[in-house]
Design goal:
seven-stranded mixed sheet; four-stranded antiparallel sheet; alpha/beta
């Protein structure tokens, strides 16, 4: 009886296979020998561990003393002088290139005087989680593939839901960051409201001028670039005005438009302010709108009593973004989305391939791949679970309280400095201020001040623009930032102002 084939073969196919067997064996032996270098020998492995450990320890020993920002004329162009080639180079050369062209230039986000943007150098415990995740090679997308990895991610989702006050029946997933999580939330909200392409031109989204730009980007990526975006008026503290929101929704309904989504902020990136979330939630419910909160920066402040009061009403949202790589101090690439009704996530993101039919045979937990855009799923949970298990929640809670009090301290210090105008009293840990010179343009002075601070490099702060006014930002978000670092940074700021003001 002839051997059957799923796909028919030419008559001479088996003869050709026999003739090529010997040469194929020789080829495979050669390829095997070359490819085995991907598995290091015991001696090579020991060298990798020893030298990489020494490099990492040296970085940690110096991270607090090195500048917060370093720049050069060549801007790391030297890295390109060593292209990827057929043959490798030594580990010593690799580490030297890493130091010279990557770790020694640009932002030192691990510095305690890194006060410019929110994510700051990740806690070292997470690095060990990433290391173990990479070594173990567990696929965290489907329960069947790695029950432990999926249980860990869902356990962390349930823990975060408890932190923010979401009810039983909520769900979510770990993402690469706030941008993807906000995109997911918009897609879920769109599907939950049954919006289709013909509806987009009439669908209205409500946010403020300080809503993170990734929301606009997400609407465009989701195909909703033609939807109507209302920039709701703000109060005197850069927060969404609930009264203005209610009036704008009513006017849009009267005009025959379809109000659909409100995006509130639990700590804007621009100013750190928190919208009146409880009032907004009430307006959303009464108008049957989806209420989404971007809490990428601020939501984890719910862990501490000072932040929990300020974030009142966040738990009434329909969806919420949190970034553990911001105020849980994890490495970049650690985001999360929570959705009040877990059942709405699957219809928006779910999908099955024929080759995956075996994966559903023992699904005791919901698989992240079925409720998120990702099928290939990095084992992100370990970088979060490991430090929480090792350290407990208490030090994270204390660090967040400390950042709030440091921001209040910095605000009060700035308010006593001659020529400094402070912005709103900080809700969380971002302080806005500007220097107003006795003569000359204040906006240009503050732009120059930022440039001089960056050139100096010991402290890193940034600027933003509110309306036509350029203001400075002090974003206190590093677990390494303490009182002495704020005092030192303010002293450097004062000296830079004096030098520039005397020019």
């Amino acid at each position: 009886m002839k051997k059957s084939h799923l796909i028919s073969q030419p008559e001479n196919h088996q003869n050709l296979q026999t003739q090529n067997t010997i040469s194929n064996h020789e080829l495979l032996a050669d390829l095997e020998q070359k490819s085995r270098s991907l598995e290091p020998s015991q001696k090579e492995l020991e060298e990798l561990f020893r030298k990489t450990e020494a490099y990492a320890k040296q970085h940690l020993d110096n991270v607090c003393d090195t500048p917060a920002y370093v720049t050069s004329d060549d801007r790391s162009i030297g890295l390109l002088s060593s292209p990827i080639t057929e043959m490798g180079i030594s580990l010593d050369e690799v580490l030297q290139q890493l130091y010279d062209h990557v770790d020694h230039e640009g932002l030192n986000s691990g510095s305690p005087r890194y006060l410019g943007y929110i994510p700051s150098g990740g806690i070292v415990h997470s690095a060990f989680g990433d290391f173990l995740a990479a070594i173990g090679g567990r696929y965290a997308g489907i329960f069947h593939s790695s029950p432990g990895a999926v249980r860990m991610e869902n356990m962390l989702i349930r823990w975060m839901a408890g932190v923010v006050g979401y009810p039983k029946g909520s769900g979510g997933y770990l993402s690469s960051g706030g941008s993807i999580a906000n995109l997911s939330a918009i897609i879920i909200a769109r599907e939950a409201h049954g919006l289709r392409g013909a509806d987009y031109d009439r669908a209205v989204i409500y946010m403020t001028e300080h809503t993170h730009h990734c929301v606009d980007k997400a609407l465009r990526i989701a195909g909703m670039g033609s939807s109507i975006r209302r920039r709701v008026a703000e109060d005197g503290r850069c927060r969404m005005s609930a009264e203005a929101l209610e009036k704008t929704i009513a006017a849009d309904k009267a005009s025959g438009l379809e109000p659909w989504l409100i995006v509130g902020s639990a700590g804007t990136t621009n100013t750190g302010t928190v919208d009146p979330l409880s009032d907004i939630a009430s307006i959303a419910r009464s108008n049957n709108l989806w209420f989404h909160v971007d809490g990428a920066y601020g939501a984890f402040f719910a862990l501490c009593p000072e932040g929990k009061d300020i974030l009142n009403g966040m738990n009434q949202s329909d969806s919420l973004v949190l970034d553990p790589h911001k105020t849980l101090f994890l490495p970049f690439g650690s985001g999360a989305l929570l959705v009040r009704d877990q059942e709405l996530m699957g219809p928006a993101h779910g999908g099955r391939g024929a080759y995956m039919i075996d994966m559903d045979s023992d699904a005791h937990e919901l698989s992240p791949a079925y409720v998120s855009p990702e099928l290939t799923k990095h084992f992100r949970g370990l970088r979060m679970w490991l430090p929480l298990k090792l350290l407990g929640v208490a030090p994270f809670r204390a660090a967040l309280s400390e950042k709030i009090y440091l921001a209040r301290y910095a605000y009060e210090r700035l308010n006593t400095m001659n020529g400094i105008q402070v912005g709103p009293y900080p809700d969380l840990s971002i302080v806005t201020y500007r220097y107003v010179p006795k003569k000359g343009d204040a906006n240009e002075f503050n732009r120059s001040l930022v440039r001089n601070l960056h050139k100096d490099g010991r402290v890193f702060m940034t600027s933003t623009q509110i309306g036509s006014t350029v203001v400075m930002r002090m974003a206190i978000g590093s677990f390494r930032t303490h009182l002495q670092d704020i005092d030192e940074s303010l002293e450097i700021l004062q000296n830079q102002i004096k030098q520039l003001d005397n020019c």
